[in-house]
């Protein structure tokens, strides 16, 4: 059964993100927004269904998130989660363990920019448990 | 007299962009959105008053624009201008001469990402004349 994705931003939603599903709890959608590799700024719009989030992970090159629709959360290991909505920016430093995803009761879209793509590698860790998620968003 | 900037996106407007005024026809505002230099992805929100546009220019590293509010135009030398609105992305290849700015009857905001900032240099050229602008937006 296909999930109907509501329109929550002016950016495209793309296709269901099956390639990364193994690193997510819940469904997500991915829309590549750029193509020119000379620019070294890969940009995708990522959309999460309510309650969906990615596993704890880190990027050797870092990452930038630009929230563009709905409501979500961002949390770094050992810190309080931060609620993010359209217009909010998250700068994720290299090698910082973190997760991001939708609020329990809202779809969420953020533009994701891969920093230092020439050398970046992602390290995927364990899922954000239901208990960790409930604590983060309460 | 200060110009009142209307709210056309969820992103901050920042201060009037006096440092670059010499390269603009009309007023603009600049809001830095990122600070972590390790990420090598400098991002600013640029807001143009109606009719305002920057000079013809190019970037040795290229640039990416993400339209977030209002309506504007982007034109590369020798090509037809492209109208851009919230949700549109413009990938500007290195060394391509171009300009961008607001529509004659609309404020416009785009997020601007400096590509390859480690080596990027901007080359500023002549203003977009009233005749060139009128032709571009008609």
List the helices and strands and how they pair.
Two copies of one chain form a homodimer.
Chain A lengths: L14 E2 L7 E2 L2 E5 L10 E6 L4 E2 L2 E3 L3 E14 L5 E4 L3 E4 L5 E5 L5 E7 L7 E3 L5 H8 L1
Antiparallel strand pairs in A: 1-3, 2-5, 3-4, 4-11, 6-12, 7-8, 7-9, 7-10, 7-11
- Can you name the CATH architecture of the domain at 22-42 and 54-119 in chain A? Sandwich
Beta content of chain A comes to 35-45%
The biggest beta sheet of chain A reads:
8 strands, antiparallel
Poorly predicted regions of chain A: none
Task: Tell me the quaternary state.
Answer: homodimer
Which percent bin holds the helix content of chain A? under 10%
Q: How many helices of chain A?
A: 1
**Fold-level CATH name of the domain at 22-42 and 54-119 in chain A:** Jelly Rolls
- The string of secondary-structure elements of chain A, in order, is EEEEEEEEEEEEH
Instruction: Name the structural class of chain A.
Output: mainly beta
Radius of gyration of chain A: 14 Å
Largest interface: A-B, 30 and 30 residues
CATH superfamily of the domain at 22-42 and 54-119 in chain A: Jelly Rolls
Distance between the termini of chain A: 30 Å
The number of E-state strands of chain A comes to 12
* Shape descriptor of chain A: globular
> What is the typical, i.e. mean, pLDDT of chain A?
97
CATH classification, class level of the domain at 22-42 and 54-119 in chain A: Mainly Beta
Features:
homodimer, 138 residues, mainly beta, Jelly Rolls, two-stranded antiparallel sheet
């Amino acid at each position: 059964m296909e999930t109907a994705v509501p329109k929550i931003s002016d950016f495209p939603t793309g296709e269901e993100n099956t390639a990364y599903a193994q690193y997510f709890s819940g469904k997500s959608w991915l829309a590549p927004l750029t193509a020119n590799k000379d620019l070294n700024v890969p940009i995708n719009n990522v959309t999460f269904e309510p309650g969906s989030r990615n596993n704890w992970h880190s990027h050797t090159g870092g990452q930038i998130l630009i929230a563009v629709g709905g409501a979500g959360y961002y949390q770094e290991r050992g810190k309080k989660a931060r609620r993010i909505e359209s217009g909010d920016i998250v700068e994720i430093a290299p090698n910082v363990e973190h997760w991001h995803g939708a609020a329990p009761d809202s779809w969420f879209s953020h533009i994701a920019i891969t920093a230092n793509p020439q050398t970046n590698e992602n390290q995927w860790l364990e899922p954000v448990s239901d208990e960790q998620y409930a604590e983060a968003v309460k």
